Amino acid sequence: MEIKETAVAGTLESSDIQIMISKATDGIQIDLQSDVEKQFGDQIRQVITKTLNDLDITAAKVKAVDKGALDCVIKARTIAAAQRASQTTDQPAWEVL
Amino acid sequence: MKNSVNRDLPEDVMKDLNYQPFESTEIGHPEIQRVAPKVHVSTGDDKVVTSIKQVIKDTLKDGMTISFHHHFRNGDFVFNMVMREIIDAGYKDLTLAPSSLTGVMNDLVIEAIKAGTITHITSSGMRGSLGDFVSHGGLKSPVIFRSHGNRARAIEHGDIKIDVAFLGVPNADALGNANGMEGDAVFGSLGYALMDAQYADKVVLLTDNIVSYPNTPASIKQTQVDYVVKVDKVGDPDKIGSGATRFTKDPKELKIASTVNDVIVNSPYFKDGFSFQTGSGGAALAVTRYLRQAMIDNKIKASFALGGITKPTTDLLKEGLVDKVMDVQDFDKGAAESMHTSANQQEIDASWYADPDNKGAMVDQLDVVILSALEIDTKFNVNVMSGSDGVIRGAIGGHQDAATAKLTIISAPLVRGRIATVVPDVTTVVTPGDSVDVLVTEYGIAINPKRKDLQEALGNLPGVPVYKIEDLQKLAEQKVGKPKPLEFTDRTVAMIEYRDGSIIDTIKEVKD
Asked: Sites of the modification O-(phosphoribosyl dephospho-coenzyme A)serine (chain A) (predicted)?
């Protein structure tokens, strides 16, 4: 999957995460803001990275603002943002779900 | 050195401060000696002054202990007024010993610490920027956290020796007779301040409302007061009871509240003449509403409601469902006003309320209490002091004291956002699991295995699943994942006393 434009998914409500994905040339860089950074920062980065890798995205700039989202929410928002960014929303990546 | 709730205590600090590790919730029957204040004799004819600066100059010396009450909560003007003068006068090495610290005081406390004016603090709690400052090592010597009952005990023992108490009141006469019920900034019960008035060497009242002599009812008496300072305004009435009373619409809180009610109603304590205490959180207020209906349906009345009082509780008094309200502080305007008009709403001081070293305190007679928790662990130990990031952001309040009730219920959601409330080990032990009986979450309840009688009584309630607390903990972990352990340095920034004055846990400086 190729990132074509910058796209956002998610809100800043409690228990949600807002993910913004944009083009990058090299690797996945994640800029994370989270109230639970100390306890779950590594885990959140790992879920985002794995979800993107499963979508065959190896280069992307990710800005994530987390409000205490669970892993399933982080995954869902990442997929939505990635599909919007790659303009593939009419072809859901079922195998990643 | 480990105590009986398995907390490692720093030997050097324990020795320096002459502390014993916590052993047991049992107080026993020791004989103790109380202290008495120094009295500067006068006929009281010239107590009224207008200059705070002059009073401070006449009463305060470097190294002394000063106190305040927190009944004005976030509407307090008195603390900042007095502290400003003390900092500006260049005092050093003072101990700050208020009944608690509210957010509105944070900036000046931090300024006073930085200036060397305050070097020691004892309090029920602290929040916001001050908690953050202390957790990051801002104060050299550890803060001592005490429950409301324990503060009373410590004052009576002389562990806290108050040299000068600065007490704001909404009214006073020229001799110092005062109460919390009349004037612009009324807050109702003066419960915590009554200890300071009785035991401080110098008692300074600050009021914006000097009334004709003699002022009654006199909660603080002229026999205790050295100065009456006339000031412009003691507090902001709109912020004294802000935000406390609200009826929750949150379905999770309502589910917890109705389950708490099920637990109470089906316990052996729900009978005519029972007594109870609730807090001021959303779920606790909703419990009062459910309990009211259950009392009407079962034709049961309570003999007394205790502690921090809210309007829903005084409404029960007016309805005749509760005989007496024993009131150490009022959380909202409704409760404060009710105290003025209802003879059955009795003001009680912190010692009468909850001091363990007593000839009987009210909490010793308490049947049912509903308390909250930031965290509770599989040993039923409760944390109400440090947040999920390890930073100080709470207060003991009456938690340890009221938990000695016959039925202690902790009401808390299983998880808050991504943070589990039910955990393998709490970050900070404040109330020992020995005094906790039932945990109520939105998923179901867990009963302390020590309470076989409650297992029996509550084991088969329709719609109330009973879990082992270990299983609730696993359920929480399944939802949110396993958090990375918090990191702390070796430096102790706070000591948590149990209500008997032993050390139940410490708080370390956070690493970040």
From this structure: 14
Give tens-digit pLDDT for B71-97: 999 999 999 999 999 999 999 999 999
Instruction: Report residue B246's pLDDT band, with 50, 70 and 90 as the boundaries.
Output: low
| B330 in Cβ contact with B238 (< 8 Å) | no
Q: What is the pLDDT of residue B241?
A: 76
For residue A40, give the nearest of B390, B418, B487 by CB distance.
Answer: B418
User: Which of B419, B481, B484 lies nearest to residue A71, judging by beta carbons?
Assistant: B481
The whole-angstrom separation of Cα B311 and Cα B29 is 37
- Among the partner residues B419, B479, B487, nearest to A36 by beta-carbon distance: B419
Looking at CATH, the fold of the domain delimited by B53-240 is given as Glutaconate Coenzyme A-transferase (3.40.1080)
Q: How far is CA B120 from CA B85, B139, B494, in A?
A: 18, 8, 11
Pick B251-487's CATH classification: 2.60.40.10, 3.40.50.10420, 2.60.120.260, 3.40.1080.10: 3.40.1080.10
Contacts of A15 in chain B (CB under 8 A): 417-418
Residue of chain A nearest B488, judged by CA positions:
A38
Chain B residues with at least one Cβ partner in A under 8 Å: 388-390, 416-419, 479-481, 483-484, 486-487, 512
Matching residue, tokens 């914006």 = B208
Which residues have CB under 8 Å from B124's CB, separation 6+? B70, B99, B100, B101, B145, B146, B147, B148, B151, B395, B396, B397
B247: pLDDT confidence band, cut at 50, 70 and 90?
A: confident
Which chain A residues touch B486 with a CB distance below 8 Å? 38-39
Give the residue extent of every domain in chain B: 53-240, 251-487
What ipTM does the predicted assembly reach? 0.87
Which residue does chain B place closest to A13, by CA atoms? B417
| Residues B150-166 as b or e (16 or more Cβ within 10 Å = b) | bbbbbbbbebbbbbbbb
Q: How far apart are CA B97 and CA B193, in angstroms?
A: 12
Distance from the B490 Cα atom to the nearest Cα atom in chain A, whole angstroms: 18
- What's the topology of domain A7-87? Ribosomal Protein S5; domain 2 (3.30.230)
In sequence order, the 6+-apart residues with CB closer than 8 A to the CB of B378 are B422, B423, B424, B425, B469, B470, B473
B290 CA: distance to closest CA in chain A (Å)? 28
**Is B251-487 in the same CATH topology as B53-240?**
yes
B302-309 vs B274-277, strand pairing mode: parallel
The C-alpha atoms of residue B177 and residue B205 are separated, in whole angstroms, by 10
